[in-house]
Structures are given as structure tokens and as C-alpha cells.
Amino acid sequence: MKQKIGIHAFVWVGGWSEEECRQALESSRTSGYDLIEIPLLEPAAIDVALTRSLLEKTGLEATCTLALTPETDISSTDEAVVARGERLLHDALAVARDLGATYLGGVIFGALTRYREPLAPAGRLNSMRVLARLAEQAAASGMQLGLEVVNRYESNFLNTAEQALSLIEEIGAPNLVVHLDTYHMNIEEENFVKPVVACGKRLGYVHVGESHRGYLGTGTVDFPAFFRALRQAGYQGPITFESFSRAQEIANLSGDLAIWRYTWTDRFDLARHARAFIAAGLEAADTPED
Ligand code: MN
User: Fold this and answer.
1) How far is the CA of 189 from the centre of ligand 1 (A)?
2) Is residue 148 a contact partner of residue 179, using CB atoms and an 8 Å limit?
3) What backbone torsions phi and psi does residue 63 show, to the nearest 5 degrees?
């Protein structure tokens, strides 16, 4: 089975107007990708019929992700905030399903924000209850839910694969998976192998990003070790390139992600380079070491 190589839509666009949707899908296709990751920060803003028809036309597969905010934080202890978050997640799940995606992931367990306090035990329970219901709903459509492990400046909840595995174990839903991202692993994990192997079959999605979120291979991430670990874990899911630069402003997100520098300006050059880098990395991982 050929492994799918994906690209996050934020390399191309900062929103999802008709023009942005066309641009993102056509650019992904011409850059050689199999899959596009569509952000559902505002599910109601997605034109499902248009997106679906363009996905069919380009032959691209889609996955969907989002990040909650302090206003929709299901790990909050404020019941009204939790309820708002749960509604947003169910709306996002319905849009993802209608787009034909079988994966909804991201920072869906709490807000993507710089917390100033540790997670409250009551907030953790709130998140678990919402995720259990969302997972049940997702299972009815044959979908997986991915918990993206992110660094301490973006979450006070899941900073390591181990924490995500414990949470999934406690919730007990078979379609909950771990979503790992090399950019975040570089900050929080011991190395690029142990967390991948620890996840094993629970690893459901992967973001490949450099330590400075720019061109792959120009930072400190040990990609050869990571790709070999994916093979060791038997991972067959998509490998999606994620990158950010000030060259692509994203409303309500660039600030939270602290995107201050121009790590790239030519998105086509960046995308083609990343596609080739990932393909070569996977091929090297399949070649036995002597
Ligand atoms: Mn990511």
C-alpha cells in the first residue's frame, strides 16, 4: 500500500472562500500531494458541496483538523464554555463527514492557547466526557478522532504521547488515536523514536514539521530516526506536511502559534521540496541499514 503524503491547507491559504478552496486544492495537486488537510476552525464557513466536488475533481483525499479556543475549551471548568466547545466539535465532525473525510483531529481536547495554570482535574473530566460522546458519534460514521499532542506553550493538557495514550486508555473509545507532530515532539519528547513506538497501533496521524516550522531538513528534527520509527510502529496512515510563515497570515491563529518570521516566501517551492523530502525519507527508512 502506498503511503499517502498530505499537506496542510495553511501552506496555501488562510481561509476557505471559494477562491481559497480552489487555490488550495489545485496547488496541492500540482505539487504532487495525495491529500489535503482542511482546517475546520469555523465549520459553518466551509462550502461543503463546492469543496467536495473539487476534491473529486482533483482526486485528493481530505482530512480535517481544528483547534479549540478559550471560548470553546472543553477542558474548562465553566459548563457554558464546555457546552459551546462540544457544539463546535459536533459541527466540525458533521462537516468532516460530509466532505468524505474519515479523520478529524487537532487540539480538540482543550484550547490551543498559552495557559498560565495547570489543567484542573474537573476540566480534564469535562474534556473526557465530551470526547467520549464525540468518539461515539464519529464511530457511527466510521471516523477516527485524533488528539494532537502539542507543546507546553499551546496546551497544558497533552504535551507528550504518553499523556495522550493515558487519556485514550481512560476514555476507552476504540476510534480515538494519537496525532504526533515532529515540531512539538522536538520540544517535549526525549527523542523521535520512543513516543512513536509507544503509540504503536494507536498512532493515527502524523504532522511532519521542522523545529522552526520552515523548510524540512534545515532545523534540528531527526527525520531519519522519525521515519524509521514510523516503520517500526507499523504506521500506514497519512504523513502530512505542516509549515507556517508570516508570508501566510491566518486570522486568529498566527498570534497563538507565534508566527513572527518569514521562514519561507515561495509556497510552491516549499511544498515541492517537502513532498520530495518526505518521499526520500520514507524510501531511506525502507532501506536496511548495514
Ligand atoms: Mn501539527
Assistant:
1) 15
2) yes
3) -120, 160
Half-sphere exposure of 15 (CA within 13 A, CB side): 7
pTM comes to 0.97
**DSSP reduced 3-state for 273:** helix
Is residue 242 flagged as an active site residue?
A: yes
Judge contact between 182 and 192, C-beta under 8 A.
yes
Q: How far is the CA of 145 from the centre of ligand 1 (A)?
A: 14
Phi, psi of 269 (to 5 degrees): -65, -45
Bridge partner residues of 104 (DSSP): 64, 145
pLDDT 10s digits, 241-282: 999 999 999 988 999 999 999 999 999 999 999 999 999 999
Lookup result for grid cell 460522546: 133
pLDDT band at residue 1 using 50, 70 and 90 as cut-offs = low
Averaged pLDDT for residues 132-137: 98
Of the listed 37, 61, 148, 189, which one is catalytic?
148
Which residues, including other chains, have CB under 8 Å from residue 194's CB and lie 6 or more apart?
none
Give me the pLDDT at residue 135, please.
Answer: 98
